[in-house]
């Protein structure tokens, strides 16, 4: 069954799935932290709600475009072949209308109720992910996730700019953390799905350079991430609680990267990928807790 032959009617769950809700929720967590770190007290409620709503809608629009562009390779991969577009539950025209609708609504919210800087930065992130990464870089180079990772690293800056209307050094440190986190996070998944990426023709690093080279890259980028993750302490943005959390979480990430390199099991790559998600979430929660309690 594929998008040309299926007669299955779309449900709201299909549209919800195309928004990549788990990815967007992690983005909004980092956006929230960016907002809270931007001010000493409470974020204005209107900005807190409308800012994150607008950012989430534009991010979801980018995810829908990703589904649209990748629909032909998604059907070749076990992880993605049951998505709404490959299975024909939603057709491309409906997808385009949906992506435009939620994207325009999100941009309108940011422009009229938040501030123009946050809106244009969010649009830049959308273009970077939906078109530059998904439409070009993903199929052009095995360094796709490194070069294209900047767009996915933007949410803390989007949250920060929603509150302040400015771009500040501390916000860029938060962006740098996610930028350094993205390659080891995604390459662990790519190792687990290497055969599927090879079948689909996507030049992921494990496919083009092999697992060993990819594992070396993961260790190197994880070490860079651990180094970058302590910047908030030395810049004065956070205190000792965050520093200890960053070191402990970073040590855990290094352990998983080392296991993947030296003592891999069938599940180690996926376990490393899962830990990376927990790592980022807890790291940003630690930033917020430290900000308000110490």
Overall mean pLDDT stands at 94
Largest sheet: none
Radius of gyration from the CA trace?
19 Å
The fraction of residues assigned to DSSP E strands is under 5%
What are the segments in which pLDDT stays under 50 over at least 5 consecutive residues? 1-7
Oligomer status: single chain
CATH architecture of the largest domain: Orthogonal Bundle
Percent in helix? over 70%
Number of extended strands: 0
Structural class: mainly alpha
Number of domains: 2
Concise synopsis of the structure shown:
The chain has 294 residues and is an all-alpha fold. The protein has helices spanning 12-18, 21-37, 45-69, 71-74, 92-114, 116-140, 144-147, 149-152, 155-164, 169-192, 194-200, 205-229, 231-234, 240-262, 268-293.
Question: How does this model look, in words?
Answer:
The chain has 2 domains: 1-166, UbiA prenyltransferase (Tetracycline Repressor, domain 2, Orthogonal Bundle), CATH 1.10.357; 168-294. Helix 3 runs antiparallel to helix 9 (155-164). Residues 1-7 have low confidence and may be disordered. It contains 15 helices and no strands. By secondary structure, it is mainly alpha-helical.
Question: How would you summarize the topology of this molecule?
Answer:
Elements: H1 12-18, H2 21-37, H3 45-69, H4 71-74, H5 92-114, H6 116-140, H7 144-147, H8 149-152, H9 155-164, H10 169-192, H11 194-200, H12 205-229, H13 231-234, H14 240-262, H15 268-293
């Amino acid at each position: 069954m594929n998008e040309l032959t299926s007669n299955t009617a779309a449900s709201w769950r299909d549209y919800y799935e195309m928004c990549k809700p788990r990815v967007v929720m992690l983005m909004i967590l980092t956006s929230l932290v960016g907002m809270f770190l931007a001010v000493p007290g409470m974020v204005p409620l209107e900005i807190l709600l409308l800012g994150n709503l607008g950012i989430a809608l534009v991010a979801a629009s980018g995810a829908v475009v990703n589904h649209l562009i990748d629909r032909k390779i998604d059907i070749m991969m076990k992880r993605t072949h049951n998505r709404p577009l490959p299975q024909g539950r939603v057709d491309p025209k409906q997808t385009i209308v949906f992506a435009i609708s939620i994207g325009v609504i999100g941009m309108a919210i940011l422009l009229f109720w938040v501030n123009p800087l946050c809106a244009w930065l969010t649009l830049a992130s959308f273009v970077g992910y939906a078109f530059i990464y998904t439409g070009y870089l993903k199929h052009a180079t095995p360094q796709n996730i490194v070069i294209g990772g900047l767009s996915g690293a933007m949410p803390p800056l989007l949250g920060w700019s929603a509150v302040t209307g400015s771009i500040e050094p501390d916000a860029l440190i938060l962006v740098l953390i996610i930028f350094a986190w993205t390659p080891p996070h995604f390459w662990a998944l790519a190792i687990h799905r290497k055969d599927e990426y090879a079948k689909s023709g996507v030049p992921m690093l494990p496919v083009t350079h092999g697992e060993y080279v990819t594992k070396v890259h993961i260790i190197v980028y994880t070490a860079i991430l651990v180094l970058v993750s302590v910047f908030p302490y030395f810049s004065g943005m956070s205190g000792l609680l965050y520093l200890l959390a960053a070191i402990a979480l970073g040590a855990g990430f290094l352990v998983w990267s080392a296991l993947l390199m030296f003592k891999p099991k069938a599940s180690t790559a996926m376990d490393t990928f899962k830990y990376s998600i927990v790592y980022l979430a807890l790291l940003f929660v630690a930033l917020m807790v430290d900000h308000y309690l110490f």
